[in-house]
Write a structure and sequence with these properties.
Layout: E1 23-24, H1 29-35, E2 38-48, E3 52-63, E4 69-75, E5 80-82, E6 98-107, E7 110-113, E8 120-124, E9 127-134, E10 137-141, H2 143-157, H3 165-175, H4 187-203, H5 209-216, H6 222-231, H7 238-249, H8 255-268, H9 274-280, E11 289-290, E12 303-304, H10 307-317
Parallel strand pairs: 4-7
Antiparallel strand pairs: 1-5, 2-3, 2-6, 3-4, 6-7, 6-8, 8-9, 9-10, 11-12
């Protein structure tokens, strides 16, 4: 059975902190990409939980060229929430062969990756466990999809020329299909659509409102809604603004989606909506918003503001 890699739990964690453990606030993928010098495919040669990972570079796909064998010994995006004296951040690559990495040079042949759980994508069974949004939310995609899309995303965030013709074709083909259902048969299409929507967000592909709205309205699939709301950031239109406000008015919309809707509206700077948004503040959810999952996960302190906090901040800024 095809594994469902993309995490489905979007439960409020209410600011949980794992006691007597090392935990961190996991960065979103754009932060990972922006902080890296290079994006590459490599083979894991050796791994030690405490000392680091030795890799052999197979190909530099974007950024500063790296060749030969190098060692990953640190983390450039690690924001610790708590720490344990005997169990600091560790490297867990003992059962991994081929892997894509986002790396930042330290000195010599020593490099750092974002966190112990971000900044790499493992290749297994001919597919990539890929992060386009956040390491909590991954998708299984073939290298033929992952490499050109992630290379374009890296180039975009590093202000380098982007060859996006293939990406635009992928987006058009994937989003011409109806929103795929989460389930065994629908997963390949769902993953393609996830990648397409997230590419619109990362690359700022404009004029996509009509294409994206069916996914924003797909209340049966929270992950389609999340990616759709993010993708709308690239297309500031009256229809997009109206849909985002509707999500905030709808009490059945999950908090995670509403907070991201506020983020997209904040990017628009919609001053004409200030009074409307202010009216929504009193009834907005005050629950903490997190990614859910296992309380023992070291990323457990990663969270978002409540819907009310996000709305209050936006209204104050308009």
């Amino acid at each position: 059975m095809r594994a469902l890699i993309l995490v489905l739990l979007l439960l409020s964690m209410g600011g949980l902190r794992a006691a007597r453990a090392t935990t961190w606030d996991e960065p979103w993928h754009e932060q990972v990409v922006k902080g890296a010098d290079s994006f590459m495919l490599a083979r894991v040669v050796a791994s030690n939980e405490k000392k680091g990972v030795t890799i052999k570079i197979l190909q530099t796909l974007a950024g500063t060229a790296v060749t030969g064998t190098v060692k990953i010994t640190g983390f450039y995006g690690l924001d610790l929430c708590s720490s344990s004296g005997g169990h600091g951040p560790e490297f867990h690559f003992s059962r991994i062969d081929s892997c894509y990495f986002f790396l930042k040079k330290i000195a010599g042949n020593r490099y750092s990756m974002a966190t112990p759980t971000a900044g790499y994508a493992v290749v297994r069974g001919g597919e990539v466990a890929a992060t386009y949004r956040h390491s909590y939310h991954q998708a299984l995609v073939p290298p033929a999809t992952y490499e050109p899309t992630m290379t374009a995303i890296f180039q975009h965030y590093h202000q380098l020329p982007v060859a996006d013709a293939l990406v635009r074709r992928l987006v058009a083909e994937a989003l011409a299909l109806p929103p795929a259902a989460l389930g065994e048969e629908g997963m390949p299409v769902f993953f393609r659509q996830h990648v397409a929507l997230e590419c619109i967000y990362h690359l700022g592909l404009a004029d996509q409102t009509a294409t994206v709205l069916p996914f924003v309205r797909d209340t049966a699939n929270r992950h389609a809604q999340i990616s759709g709301v993010r993708a709308l950031r690239a297309s500031d239109t009256p229809a997009a603004r109206q849909q985002l406000v509707q999500l905030l008015r709808d009490t059945t919309t999950v908090d995670f989606v509403q907070v991201l809707a506020v983020r997209t509206l904040a990017a628009y700077r919609p001053r004409e909506l200030k009074a409307t948004l202010n009216e929504l503040v009193p009834a907005a959810s005050t629950r903490g918003v997190g990614f859910g999952g296992n309380i023992m996960d070291p990323r457990v302190c990663t969270s978002l503001p409540s819907v009310q906090e996000a709305l209050t901040k936006l209204v104050a800024e308009l």
